[in-house]
Design goal:
Blueprint lengths: L7 E4 L2 E11 L6 E8 L6 E5 L3 E6 L2 E4 L3 H4 L10 E2 L1 H4 L14 E5 L9 H29 L10 E6 L9 E10 L7 E11 L2 H8 L4 E4 L5 E5 L5 E5 L10 E3 L8 E4 L4 E3 L5 E3 L11 E3 L4 E5 L15
């Protein structure tokens, strides 16, 4: 016989409360504890092991193997440490439950005891929802994030002929047009420019410091090498300060000419080195190739502006 929920619980020296819940062992499918709600003002619920139940007199009365003072030593029920059989779906547990309808509890699994009960089931619901949504969301996320992982554009562009540059250590501007596609916007044609200097040995040494300049793709592979003894040096048309356009200008202080950015007055010499102004680094050297006929080709590399180190963007 199993006790009826709401059955009276009596000790050797008097009644102490009523049965409010029973706790089932999820392994043996047997009742492991009865929960007795005290009759006093505090109405605490205490867990009494089934072995301390002396007798189930009837469905209406249970006798415990303790006195009233000993009963107060039993642990108080921590409801967050238990779940109902329906919440954990223990198979065939109902076959061994012979109490009247009421709250039947089983211990919360050990891995879940440190998580508040409501939080656990909320997180479980969110996790299941995320697993269901992932197959639907992944193609969309992949499409939206694709531009972030697009390889660098290492295409060569024809910009003009080096025979136009007559004097050494003078900046000469070449303009060219290229297609540009930003994220999911339609491709558009934009006008770009580079500055090319026919360099003396001193200028080449200032730029390359006696070593060839290597350029890399997004995987770290070398895509081109500018030779340190090449007579021509190409500079990006964007100022490394904030990406503004700059010009070659002769001034009172620099009669032979300098690269001058009019926006914030960054000044560079013919080797691209910073002479004055807020620019954080020298002009950016570009991959440059010149064939036997003097035709110049360039890879339109772009670097992040406003920082000391070169960080390639395109």
């Amino acid at each position: 016989m199993q006790p009826k929920l709401t059955a009276k619980a009596r000790c050797s020296d008097g009644e102490v409360g009523k049965i409010s819940k029973v706790i089932m062992d999820p392994i043996s499918h047997e009742v492991s504890h009865v929960v007795v709600q005290e009759s006093g003002a505090m109405r605490l619920e205490r867990c009494v092991p089934i072995g301390d139940v002396q007798e189930i007199v009837s469905e209406e009365e249970v006798v415990l193997r303790c006195s009233s003072s000993e009963f107060s030593q039993y642990s108080v029920l921590d409801r967050d440490q238990y779940v109902t059989p329906h919440e954990v779906e223990i198979a065939h547990l109902e076959d061994n439950i012979h109490v009247e309808p009421g709250e039947v509890l089983v211990p919360l699994p050990c891995l879940e005891r440190d998580v508040p009960r409501r939080t656990f089931f909320t997180n479980m619901t969110h996790a299941i929802g995320a697993l269901i949504a992932l197959p639907l969301a992944f193609p969309v996320l992949k499409y939206l994030m694709k531009p972030m992982y697009k390889p660098f554009d290492n295409a060569w562009f024809d910009v003009g002929n080096s025979k136009k540059i007559a004097k050494e250590n003078i900046g000469y501007q070449f303009k060219f047009t290229r297609g540009f596609k930003e994220a999911f916007m339609p491709e558009q044609q934009i006008e770009k420019n580079i500055w090319v200097v026919k360099a003396t040995p001193e200028v080449k040494k200032a730029v390359y410091e006696g070593e060839d300049r290597k350029f890399y793709d997004n995987k770290g592979d070398v895509i081109w090498v500018n030779k340190a003894n090449s007579p021509f040096i190409g500079f990006s048309g964007k100022c490394p300060h904030l990406g503004c356009g700059y010009k070659w200008r002769r001034t009172k202080n620099f009669p032979d000419g300098v690269f001058l950015c009019p926006c914030h007055l960054s000044i560079y010499d013919e080797a691209g080195k910073v002479i004055d102004g807020p620019a954080p680094r020298a002009l950016d050297v570009l991959p440059l190739d010149i064939n036997a006929g003097g035709e110049i080709k360039v890879i339109d590399v772009e670097y992040k502006a406003g920082v000391k180190n070169q960080i390639r963007l395109l």
